[in-house]
Every structure is written in structure tokens, then in C-alpha cells.
Amino acid sequence: MELRQLEYFVAVAEERNFTRAAERVHISQSGVSAQIRQLERELGAELFDRSARTVTLTVAGKAALEPARAALAAARAVGQAVGEVTDLIRGRVTVGMVSGCTVTPLFDALASFRGAHPGVELSLLEDRSDRLAEAVRAGTLDLALIGAAAAVPEGLDALTLIDERLCVAVPAGHPLARRRRVTLRDACSHPLVCMPPGTGLRTVFDDACAAQGVRPPIALEASAPDAIADLAARGLGVAVLSDSMARHYGDRLTALPLDDITTPALLVLVWRSTHNPAVRELLRHCGQAFSGPADQGGPGPAAGSR
User: Fold this and answer.
1) Dist CA 275 CA 287 (whole Å)
2) Is the pLDDT higher at 248 or at 190?
3) Is 166-263 the same fold as 89-162+265-306?
4) Residue 259: which of 137, 159, 176 has the closest Cα?
């Protein structure tokens, strides 16, 4: 039994798909399948039920999953302990990021961290904020940049990077463009373009609609602020964005704060544990990267699909 076999086993169990697991561990699907088969022969039991389109764990597989995770964590801990003694940080850090994110300080932090610690393997994955938060809780991500509604997800440590109100954005000539005040009901009298469910901005918006008993006429959804702005600029709907996002497109759209939504949309870094020295160091680089732009008015507009 080899550690790489356990790594492949855990990857397939979590992804529930051999192809996605192979992409995650950066080898071919046939290589993953062969190693899993070898592991099953050594253990004398099948670990996966392959009869359906979605791979599921057998009873033996369920019994093996947590010990396999523990073995991999113990192996990483050995390397980390030696690295701390020798002042050389090694290992792996897996970072999650909301889809469509363009917060450049995060990229600056990753670049400076890689330059300072070339022995650490970095992985970067995109997904919706709710899924990223759950992955951090489960330990499959070390830290993630997510969008949140008003409060940080429970059970996670966090560093708030952006705290903004919701806005709508409309092109010149739109009926709302002439208004001085815009409420949620005003916005919902027109077709809307917004983020998909599971993002922080959408959660703030949906919660506000539920509180006021409003059913929003969502015409189109897009994960990237640029796409939402482009659709709104073409008259396909009123864009629902954060303040900095909406004002970023001021050459094409008029930004109008939603007066009766006071709950802020947050962009936060979240993590569960800093026992990993590489995670602690990356958090330090993130703090440095974000502190510079923050002194000049925040980390910048178009902060991704929060």
C-alpha cells in the first residue's frame, strides 16, 4: 500500500468520478483506475461501486475513507514538522476562489508566496462560494476566497477584505437611470441580471427579497461581473452588483445603491486551521498584499462572483 494510492482513493471518493479525480491529482484516468485496482487487490475488497454513472463507496470503501485521510494528513505532518525545524516550508496548499474572481491582490499574494517558498505545491480551484466554504470545512481546501452575506460562515476563521452594499446598474436611457433613490421593489419591477445561487451577492439579494415578500424577476444569470455588466449594457436586464463592481462600469452603466438593503456583501478569506505552516505563511502574504491596496481605497473593483 502506497500513499499515492490512498491519495487517489480519497480523490475518487470526494469527486465521485474517476475523470475529475484524475484531473485533481494530475495523472491519467487509466493511471488512477490501475492504482485503485491494485489497492483493492491488496485490501481484498472493492472500494467503489462502479455500476452507476456516479461512483459511490462500498461498505469497505466507507470504512477505509477516514483512515486514508488520516494517513495522508499524518504524512503531511511529518514533512511539515521537519520543515519547521529546518526553516524550510514544504508541502501543499490548496486555495479556493470564487468563479470569475479578479481580485489581483490574491494573485499577488500567491506569486510572492511562491517566490518565497518554492518547495510548496500550490493548487487553485474555482467554484461557488457555498461549495468553497464547505470544502474548507471538510479539509479538502486549506483556505478560500469567498463571498458571504453579512456574516462569516460558521466554524471558519476569516479575514474580511471587502464589505459593501448592493447596487443596481443600468445603461443611459433606462427608466431607473433618472431616479435619485432606488428600492428593491423599484429594481424588481424590471428584468434582472445577477449572480447565480450560492454566491454571496445572490444570497444577500435573495434574503432581502424574502424579507420584503418580493419575487425577483431574474431574467439572466452569470458568474462574472463583466458578463453581468455587458448584458445590462445591452438592455437585457438591470444588473445586481456590489458597489465597487457597479461603479467600475461607470463608462457604460449608472450605479444606483439599493436604499432599503443595508445587509452588506462580504468578500472574505476563510480557513479552518493554521496548523499547516504553509497556510500560516500564505495568510501572512495575503495580509500584506491586501493591506497595500486597502490604504488606497480597497482591493479594487470587479471582485468576482461573490
Assistant:
1) 18
2) 190
3) yes
4) 176
Distance CA 224, CA 257 (A): 20
Give the containing element (helix H, strand E) for 121: strand 120-127
Architecture of domain 166-263: 3-Layer(aba) Sandwich (3.40)
Q: 267: burial class by Cβ within 10 Å (0-12, 13-18, 19+)?
A: buried
Instruction: Delimit the domains of the chain by residue range.
Output: 1-86, 89-162+265-306, 166-263
Map 241-303 to HEC letters: EEHHHHHHCCCCCEEEEECCCCCCEEEEEEECCCCCHHHHHHHHHHHHHHHHHHCCCCCCCCC
Alpha helix stretches (DSSP H) within 44-103: 59-85
pLDDT digits (tens, 9 = 90+) for 62-72: 999 999 999 88
Q: What predicted TM-score, i.e. pTM, was given to this entire model?
A: 0.59
- Cell numbers at residue 167, please? 447596487
- The full 3-state SS of 137-201, as one line of letters, equals HHCCCCEEEEEEECCCCCCCEEEEEEEECEEEEECCCCHHHHCCCECHHHHCCCCEEECCCCCHH
For 52-90, how does the pLDDT look when each residue is reduced to its tens digit (9 = 90+)?
878 899 999 999 999 999 988 888 777 666 665 544 566
Q: What is the CATH number of domain 1-86?
A: 1.10.10.10
| CATH class of the 89-162+265-306 domain in this structure | alpha beta
Determine the residue type at 293. Answer: P
Cell 491519495 found at: 7
3-state SS class at 126: strand
What gap in Å lies between CA 55 and CA 204, rounded to an integer?
35
User: Which residue shows C-alpha cell 495568510?
Assistant: 283
